[in-house]
Amino acid sequence: MTSPLLQTELSGLPVTRGKVRDVYDLGENLLLVSTDRISAFDWVLPTGIPDKGRVLTQLSNFWFKHLNIPNHLLETEVEAMNLPADSDLESLSGRTILVRKTEVVPIECVVRGFISGSAWQEYYNTGKVCGIELPTGLEESARLPSMIFSPATKAAKGEHDENITFAEMCDRVGVDLADRLRHLSIETYQQGAAHAHEKGIIVADTKFEFGVVGGEIILVDEVLTPDSSRFWPADLYEPGHAQPSFDKQFVRDWLSESGWDKDSPPPELPENVVARTREKYIEAYERITGEPFAWK
Hints:
The chain is an alpha+beta fold. The chain is built from 7 helices and 16 strands. It has helices spanning about 50-65, 90, 115-125, 165-175, 175-200, 250-255, 270-290; strands at about 15, 20-25, 30-35, 40, 45, 75, 95-100, 105, 105-115, 130, 130-135, 145-150, 150-155, 200-215, 215-220, 230-235. The strands form 4 sheets. Strands 8, 9, 12, 13, 14, 15 and 16 form a 7-stranded antiparallel sheet that branches. A hairpin with a 3-residue loop joins strand 2 (about 20-25) and strand 3 (about 30-35). Helix 1 runs parallel beside helix 7 (about 270-290), helix 4 (about 165-175) packs across helix 5 (about 175-200) and helix 6 (about 250-255) packs antiparallel against helix 7. The longest helix is centred in the middle third of the chain and has 24 residues, at about 175-200. The chain is globular. The termini are close together. The mean pLDDT is about 95.
């Protein structure tokens, strides 16, 4: 197993570092590099997951090609990106994309087909999710009677995303744009979830991000990955409790059981947790794309 790539450096290019991605400003376009950093409980962990950035990038690239919606992707081959001469193209390969710069809509567009996570907690306490009244008696992880659109704010660095009502979203971005984003989000979720289900994966929920360029709404950031979605194995699905998943489950479970207080810097992850987490990310990629994940 290769060492994780936790940070990139491209000489002469201004960079913004998110929890997972390093974003380089090229003027008219952006360079997005998905590192192997992993976050949990609002902390970036000191231990990375080898190849995680490549899995997220390659899976998003698959969806960009297969989903019927315009997106920001311009180039996937690093040799064609005109990067600084001293760039380590080998380490950047597979995890780097050149994209159009857009005016990003400051809303996380979340679509839920099943009730889990924060939505389950909100429903359990109030009977609602983001102001939407739901039927009584739903179990944890149950399929919802119909999909719901539950927007959230895009938090500033170091802050939490906050669920908001659709009315609040309309106040923030305007009724017309909010309606269009809700329609696009649900339509895209339906298309992606149908494909994933054919491959044995339930997409319980997911979040999309959109940008506007030249008056056109386009899909940006990552799409339908284990980091932006809740993926469950269909053959093990059983409502009434939390489900096994294809994401950071092993990481969260180990951290919760480690005695870490979640307020101080997190501990290093043990090798077995890193290996099992890497395996689940790769399994999700291989199931959805139908292709083996292999990287030199």
